[in-house]
Write a structure and sequence with these properties.
mainly alpha; 1 helix; 70 residues; single chain; elongated
């Protein structure tokens, strides 16, 4: 085992090593299959116009009195 030249026994010095190819970026996870489109629902009917707040409060009070006799 004399200190001979770097023949095929050992790795050649780095200078003669062919530059390693730039490691390709690993392909990211395969894209998920697109979700099955949901059955298109008809647009929600717009809410009926709310009565003015005072009416709401008075009606609430009325129902409250009807349900729970104060």
């Amino acid at each position: 085992m004399g200190g001979g030249c770097y023949c095929c026994t050992e790795d050649p010095p780095e200078s003669s090593t062919p530059s390693p190819q730039p490691s390709q970026p690993r392909p990211s996870r395969p894209p998920r299959p697109p979700r099955s489109p949901r059955p298109s629902r008809p647009p929600r009917s717009p809410l009926p116009p709310r009565p003015p707040r005072q009416d709401v409060l008075s009606s609430l009070r009325r129902t409250f009195k009807d349900n729970y006799i104060v």
